[in-house]
Amino acid sequence: MDSSKLADRLRSILNPAGVVRRSGQAPQASGTDLERILGGRWQEHANGACFVVERRTGPRTLHGSAPVGELAARLDGAGAEAPLIAGGAPARPPFLFFDLETTGLSGGAGTYAFLVGFGSFDEEGGFITRQYVLLRFADERALLTTVGGELERAGAIVSFNGKSFDAPVLEMRYLFHRLEWAGARLPHVDVLHPARRFWGNVGVRGPRAEHESCSLVALGRQVLGAGRVSDVPGFEIPARYFQFVRSGDARPLVAVLEHNRLDLLTLAGVTARLVHLVRSGPEEARDAREALALGHLYARAGPDDGRARAAFSRAANASITGSAASTASSAASIAGSAASIAGSAASIAGSAASIAAIRIDALRALALTLRRGRQYDEAAGCWRQLLDVCGCPRHIAREATEALAIHHEHRARDLAAARAFALQSLESGAPSAWNQAVQHRLARIERKMATARRPGFLS
Amino acid sequence: MIEGRNTEAAAVAARRGRDGALDAALERLDGGRASLRDRGLHDGGQVSSQGREACPGSPFERQDTPDLHVTAVRRLPAVAAQYAPFPAALDERLQRALESRGIARLYTHQAESIEHALAGRNVVVITPTASGKTLCYNAPVLHSILRDPSSRALYLFPTKALAQDQLAELQAMCETLAGSCGDQIGAFTYDGDTPQDARRTIRGRAHLVLSNPDMVHSGILPHHPRWTKLFENLRYVIIDELHAYRGVFGSHLGNVLRRLRRVCRHYGSNPVFLCSSATIANPRELAERLTEQPFELVDKSGAPRGEKFFVFVNPPVVNHQLCIRRSYLSETRRIAAEFLKRNLQLIAFAQSRLSTEILTTYLKDDFEDVPGGPERIRGYRGGYLPNRRREIEKGLREGAVRAVVSTNALELGIDIGALDVCVMAGYPGTIASTWQRAGRAGRRAGRSAAVMVASSAPIDQFVVRNPSYFFGASPERALVDPDNLHILVDHIKCAAFELPFRATEAFGKHDVQEILSLLAEQGLVCRQPSPEAESLRSRPRESEDLPAHGGGAPCEIEKAESLRSRPRESEDLPAHDSLEPLRGADAASNRDGGGVPGALEEGGAADEHPSRERESLGSSARTSEAVPARDSLEPLRGADAASNGGGGGVPAALEEGGAADEHPSPERESLGSSARTSEAVPARGGGAPREVETWTWTSESYPADAVSLRSVSSDNFVVVDTTRETRVIGETDFTSGPATLHPKAIYLVEGQLYQVERLDFEGRKAFVRDIDCDYYTDAITYTRVTILDTFETGEAESLRSRPSDSEVLAASGGGAPRELENVAPLASHGEVHVVSRVVGFKKIKFYTNENIGSGELDLPEQQMHTTSYWLTIPAPIMASLPYALDDRRDGVVGLAFAIRQVAQLLLMCDRHDIGISIDTGEQAEPTLRRASKRPELAGDTSPRLFIYDNYPGGVGFSEPLFCMHRELLSGTRHLIAQCECESGCPGCVGPVGDTGPLAKAAALRILDLLLDEA
Question: pTM to 2 decimals?
């Protein structure tokens, strides 16, 4: 088959519409252009060159409502709490914030990390970002070697969804080049999960963090009050890179670098806020949700030293008086953004329901914590309050009535109340195993009541 | 028989009892009207009623009687075991472990394949069911691990169930070995069912990875950096059930293996391929096309086999005019009962899940009168839970289950022990599959039987009435076309995702660089300087050398090859680097011809060295041995490149390439020629890149996800059942969507019938509802075929020769090789453009194939480029027919109806794999197939019959069909001439009402004339 014919057939297979989109040959951009446009420089290495863009944000520059220096100070003061948000990993300063920009989200040997961004605070409280950019695929090995050197200096790496995405992607690149992935040895703080607990599913959609940067953007706006102007949406980033690869024109990358830099700064700010909250305790919590999340964090960290109870109790109280206060707080957080009136009305209506959910969660957690601490009467009080919250889901109501039945049968010795709660927890929708257990309990309570009555008759 | 004397008297008695019972049942197969044996005696004349005892060595044969109830009885004599000692090279520990498991010596075919494997030669084994083929590949694999614990092996099975089935045996073997030598050998399955958290462990610990092509394609290759250990140390790749990889699936596998070998090269390994296959006509050719490697064929089984009878039964005609026969399921029930009531253990194969269930119910009614008693009759099909399946398999092995009724689920190598009888309800569709199923019955000693009960489908009728076609011919050839552009392009995307393509790399027979340029136009890849080129820049002296080589691609190949190793020098990859010099030698042969004859010779010599030294290198030098084998194809490519570059040294290069290529087996024409035709590295002339460059994947997508190995294009229609809740019950590829999913179409899923209520063409969805009816639908499609390029016409045929693997058949019925015949110029094959539109449909009654209604449809047109075989009926032949124009035309239509059936039979393909179209010979006149409106036929035209591959790009049916042209015509004539109907029926030229009263006569006349002409 001669080649022009092959080409014709291929075109009909690949592109039935017959539109030629772009040329495949990469033009060579001159090195100085890149340095000028991106504001970076080449670092020469034994096995190639690596392009790095370095920036410093001064301590007095505001990121949202707080100056960068304050973020640094908070992180500095509360850094010891990092293991709490790292799920127990021995995370210690210096913290190295990192965030990748990749050519795709699916992973695998053909997904490249074309930008490895690192951020850290310096002595003066300034924030330094170093972004390693893959300008030629041939330089990847050199880039990875340099990045490995950067990791050497870190006490822990901090990322947003990095455990499921950034670290595996980068690890794959190291494996591809048969280099050792230094990140495996470092404690890794993935801020995504605590952030979700503290601030809800802000901007996070889909099973993978498809909009991860987008959600960092939303977090920055809501938690730090840092809005962004003309930010590149995450989904556009690979296309911009491919555009650069094909044209050699680095200008589309400028905004990508800026996006990555802001992501790193937001990541640092959010982390600072988290460790600061953990250190300062529930008094610092801005609303019920933060207090609740804080309680869970303390509760998971180990035996309660009172901090968890205090946090849950604050969350429960904050969500009674709730409606007004929290509406105000969410309105405040929305005020920073240019949300439309309709939008904020909807979000306030939504937040009323979520306030109830927070209260339910807080009361339940508090009840369990109290019971574990053998404060049975207080725990029973919480279960009772729980039953009063309107919209309490059935399974939680069942749990509450069961707990109350047990409490009254075994601790308060009020068999009539125990029987009433047991009856209450007997309902048609419950699983049959559940109802069987309750019937069993009821029968026992009634036996006990019968034996209790008999001596009463006699005496 | 000989062995029997050594066994205990009781066993002999039991066997005698079984043999007697089998004989008695066989006597009753035609309902007791005539004794088969008596008839055999009369017709054959030499066989006593005591059969083989009286006449040792002479087969118990009777003449075929196509018109009777039992059309054929064949006897396959018993064969004694042939043993061989363990190959000396086989590890002592392994020999001891095998002995402890009761294997003190090997069958000859096991010894032979193990020897090939240990010597690093690729081998394909074809042996009957239950002949111990797994040992053929497990032994070399375990040997390699005992010698070097870092060794790895990858097993590919066509289904997950087969992998599970083999895992148990492998793990038991590994444990025995661990007990004797202390080495833990890890064997794991790795497929879609493997839990995520187990995957990392398996990647690290598995010596043996049992997987399937789909998983390798989408789960392993795209993540190869995580499988470094496997790919660095991959010694063997085992492909079980090789025959399963034909058509589209095989064409995909060919490309998956190209990718696998490419990744292996990257990691410096070069695995040996060990394949096992059921009996097909071309196992070696198939293995070589799939792997692009030379193969040894081991086809002489040393396993013992008992005597077997093979019987064809055609249910009697109950309505002569419409040619309606008794239901084949009832007939199967009756026959199975004859065996079951004599307490013989039986497997029955049915064609669908539905008929499996029906037959199971029948047999349970007949034989399971005690409710709650042990279940002696079981069904078995896909959809049963694994536990139930294991329980049935165990019951069969232990004898508690007396009969199992199965779909093709038990056709592949799941271990169910040896049964007495196999009854097939309906012809399984292919010769290979029929033998495979028949092989499920058969003990190593003692008698067994296989009975095929024909349904009224045309193919069944042809086979049952022409037993010698089945017993005499070799089984089908398995055809693949890994260079189908649609399939190839998809895999090039996957390959580019896995590793950047070098600008000098080849992949298949098409010009991959050209394909990459087009992918670059789509923005999927981008060409950039490779790291090698970067290091080149820093070595100015070398880059100065560049112009000295003169223009063209060849010198770049050299650079690519010799520079490839450079950046790795700093790494600790001695194995890989030590290989490079040899590759360099390859490259040398690519040097511009005229000035460097010495280099050419050198290249050739270096390439030869592998084959010569292979033996002497032995298994200890596996890694260096690896190179030669891997590169044995390269010289040819190089030679091509050289010839493209022009110059005096070309013939020498070709010769050397040829010599290297010849090596292990002399009959490798097929591979040689395929490599020769490949223009892997054509000269890129003045536009050739001046630097070493690579194509890097520049897309967000994960290309493997978009490619399903079981179809050509990923565009498909999904079938949504809306009966109760909305759920997807199936999918159909885009090409056959309109014909199978048009509104009111009956859609079948494993015997369950659904009717299409709505077809959402744009959304590619068909909404169906389940329905109870006794008909299916057949779409009426207008098809217009335009010839784009004629590859070959009949004249060239006399030169064509075809390597024959017909010895294979000796084991399964003594087949004669296909004859090589001259083909008249009326046959051609080439590339065509097919435009088709579904315009209506017919309702066809099940079993009788009666036409019971029709409907009209208006659906969008579909277009495709594909390959086709076509038959031109010369105008003089048409003119000489003693019929009116209309009747001549009917004859052509009837001929088309019949030829399609025979083509399907010869090609070993499914009904939807091929399409047929009639061209009346007039320009731009739309023609139709099987339509009520008939093509106009002028008096002096040469009508054409196209049989095209019903897949975009074609999957390789057309050329073989072209080669089998004469068989196709004579087979079609047989089918029509032997049919009992008066003037056409669904079993030959189509129902009378559809085809016209004289269609049968006219079609026969045309075929007579064509065959005379040829």
Answer: 0.74
Please check the confidence at residue B561 and state whether its pLDDT lies above 70: no
Which residues from chain B sit within 8 angstroms of residue A167, using beta carbons? none
Residue A271's H or E segment, with its range, is helix A251-280
CA of B224 vs chain A CAs: smallest distance (Å)? 7
CA distance A171 to A177: 10
Chain A contacts of B529, Cβ < 8 Å? 136, 138
- Looking at CA atoms only, how far is residue A184 from chain B in angstroms? 14
- Any idea what DSSP says for residue A210? T
- Determine whether the interchain pair B527/A106 forms a contact, defined as Cβ–Cβ distance below 8 Å: no
By C-alpha distance, which of B604, B688, B585 is closest to B649? B604
Task: Say yes or no for a CB contact (<8 Å) between B510 and A13.
Answer: no
Query: How far off is chain A from B348, nearest CA to CA, in Å?
Result: 44
- Cβ–Cβ under 8 Å, residues B765 and B774: no
Interface of B with A in 953-992 (CB under 8 A): 953
Cβ contact A282:A314 at 8 Å: yes
* Residues present in chain A in total: 459
- Does the beta-carbon distance from A110 to B225 stay under 8 Å? no
B522 close contact with A: CB closer than 8 A: yes
> Strand, helix or coil at B172?
helix
Reference A359, options A334, A332, A322; nearest CA is: A322
Superfamily of domain B3-33+306-440: P-loop containing nucleotide triphosphate hydrolases (3.40.50.300)
3-state helix/strand/coil string of B937-983: CCCCCCCEEEEEECCCCCCCCHHHHHHCHHHHHHHHHHHHHHCCCCC
Contact between chains at A24 and B525 (C-beta distance less than 8 A):
yes
Determine contact, residues B106/B113, Cβ cutoff 8 Å: no
Lowest mean pLDDT among A399-403, A429-433, B219-223, B947-951: A429-433
Domain ranges of chain A: 29-280, 393-459
Which residues does B709 contact at the CB level (< 8 Å), separation at least 6?
Answer: B213, B214, B217, B249, B252, B253, B256
CB contacts < 8 Å between A and B, how many? 132
Nearest to B431 by CA among B1008, B908, B987, B945: B908
Q: Which residues pair with B317 in a beta bridge?
A: B325
Alpha carbon of B833: minimum distance to chain A alpha carbons (Å)? 12
Side chain identity, residue B357: E
Q: Considering only the beta carbons, identify the residue of B518, B526, B705 that sits closest to A11.
A: B518
What does the domain layout of chain B look like in residue ranges? 3-33+306-440, 83-298, 531-690, 712-773, 777-1013
Bond preceding residue B482 cis, omega within 30 of 0: no
pLDDT of residue B310: 92
Q: Which fold has domain B83-298?
A: Rossmann fold (3.40.50)
Phi-psi region of B778 (alpha: psi -120 to 50; beta: other; left: phi over 0): beta
CATH 3.10.450 assigned to A29-280: no
Contact B701 A9 (CB under 8 A): no
pLDDT tens, position by position, B400-429? 889 999 988 788 777 787 789 999 999 887
**Residue B1004, Cβ density class (10 Å: 0-12 exposed, 13-18 middle, ≥19 buried):** buried
ipTM of the complex: 0.82
Residue A85 Cα, gap to closest chain B Cα (Å): 24
**What 3 state SS string does B416-459 have?**
CCCECEEEEECCCCCHHHHHHHHCCECCCCCCEEEEEECCCCHH
Q: Of the given ranges (A282-286, A362-366, B380-384, B461-465), which has the lowest mean pLDDT?
A: B380-384
CA distance A151 to A116: 11
Q: Which of A10, A107, A246 sits opposite B515 (nearest CB)?
A: A10
> What are the CA-CA distances from residue A439 to residues A423, A432, A448, B406 (Å)?
9, 10, 14, 49
